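**User:** Here is a favour to ask of a fellow structure person. Please take any protein you like and set down a full record of it. No explanation is needed for now; the record alone will do.

**Assistant:**
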Amino acid sequence: MKQYLFLGDSITDADHLFDPANLGYGYVSLLARRPEYADARFVNRGHEGFTIERVLQMLRRDGIGGHWDAITLLAGVNDIPVELFTSHSRIPLEFSAFYREVLDLLCQHTSTILLLEPFLFDEPAEYSAWHPYIEKESQIICDLALSYSAHFITTDSILRQAARQEGVDAITTDGIHLTPHGNTLLADLWHQAFTALFHD
């Protein structure tokens, strides 16, 4: 049986409530329900509010556990308030260092790592100041993906374009979190990237 681990913040967490048997309401749960993955085991270890530093702390404390056929990571948006609203400088240097340490750990447990780009929508307008930091994080993650032979999955421009075409409220509940349709789009992006790895 294939085993897929998902790490990250509230987008991954999706109210799975620390229950290994509960995948939440988000993209992880939607993927697990697809017939293509009927024989696979999905594990959700996302946690609401996690920065990349918190992901690293969790992995150091709890470990990763055995071999995984693929590990997915989505983190970054919660690091932006650390940069903007505290005296702590996070982006780019600390963010890059923490992300690299996470990848060092993940590489010991899988040969297939998928890195989902953090994303942020154009509304509400208060997030306009956050977009330059999303761009910095995305470039850091893309560069690290090349260094670690991981797979970078573009999400930000695609989800924002969908919001412009279909309406913001169709894709996001608050400019960060996803509606059911938004989660479906994210699951589709993951599935397309994942299947492409084995059909090129």
Q: What stands out?
A: The chain has a mean pLDDT of 96.
